[in-house]
Amino acid sequence: MKDASRRRPPMSELVRGFGPPVGGGEALFGRAASGWVRWVPYGIAFALVATLLPVTITVLVHEYHVNGALAGALGTAQAAPLLLAVSRPLRAWWVIFTADVAGGFVLLAADGGDHLPWPWTPMIVVGYLFLMLALGLRESRRALVGVWLATGAAGAVFELVSPQRQGGGITVLLFVLSGILLLLTATLRGRGEAERRLVEQETISEAERSRRTLLEERTRIARELHDVVAHHMSVITVQADSAPYRIPELPDAAREEFASIAAGARESLAEMRRLLAVLRSDGTDGERAPQPGLDRVQQLVEATVRAGVPAELSMAAGLGDSVELSPVVDLSAYRIVQEALANVVRHAPGAATRVSVRADEEGWLHILVVNGPAEERTSPLEGGTGTGHGLVGMRERVRLTGGSLDTGPLPDGGFRVAARLPTRTADS
């Protein structure tokens, strides 16, 4: 099909340009946000029709001595379709162009007007130029070239039919002006379409970037949680394997049941390791150190202070030991504090920061990180101490544990991150 399209002669491509309008019947400026802007093309077209129609009829009757009924028909056919040009400029051009050509032959056969412009009257030129504007803003370049060449060809035919007729220079004028308007409007439209496509592409890219960030963060959380789940599966395996040795009087049926449990746990652990290999398909190496928890928040705050952020921590000593926290909540709490402090380092360097971690009697762990306005924003640190994607990672961790997250700016220019996590997850 592509080869056949390349072999198609230029004239065939040109003829194909005189097809349906590319805009599907949408009016000029139809997508404008302001209502009055959408009505501007209709107002201009109506003003042109109201002006050109009576003037054309009067000039044809009194100057060119055309029959009144014929002049009325020509004037209507040459002016009224300008209203159609607002939404269907190519169809309007077909009507107006046919009427203009017919009018040229009528003027050629008329008794008077040998010294007047011919074959196009000044009214035809005005209406035709408006039509060129509408075409240039709506139709394909192939159609515009066809319209322009057809205009020039019609003028050339009239010059050949009656070369001695005075006033024929208007054909050159109309040919040149129509070409200029078609070129300018097509260029402006092309630039507008390019800008629109750029905005659409940027919107799509931003959405894809957000989606990719979310997926990367979920993958990273899954990799971290693998160690937590793998630990529990390993404990189940060891307990099931050692049960016959720890309980000598265990019945044979129970021994088989424990053996089945151990085999299932080992199989599940192998499947998790294969899943982890998929999650690490980007070539990243697994972390060798144990996953951090609340017991390392103090070290995290001290590292933030060394990075230039005056931070203080309010947390009961041994909170992770005194309150029974599931491994998922313990890890999520640490990561939330880590990401919040990383955002302070990146976006509010030098801002006084307060970190509070406490547990209430209802089984909730409350995390609050509040920073004041930045002292210096001219050279924020880009690195920080976090490893995730800021608020995206926080939301995912809170959603994972069934908690809640509240973030937002403060009236004084600071920022607040408040998270509430259940000390025990629903499945722990």
TrEMBL record:
Reactions listed under catalytic activity: ATP + protein L-histidine = ADP + protein N-phospho-L-histidine
Keywords, in A-Z order: ATP-binding, Kinase, Membrane, Nucleotide-binding, Phosphoprotein, Transferase, Transmembrane, Transmembrane helix, Two-component regulatory system
One Pfam family linked to the record: HisKA_3
Signal transduction histidine kinase subgroup 3 dimerisation and phosphoacceptor domain span: 217-282
Recorded superkingdom: Bacteria
PANTHER family: NITRATE/NITRITE SENSOR PROTEIN NARX-RELATED, NITRATE_NITRITE SENSOR PROTEIN NARQ
Name of protein: histidine kinase
Species, as recorded: Streptomyces roseoviridis
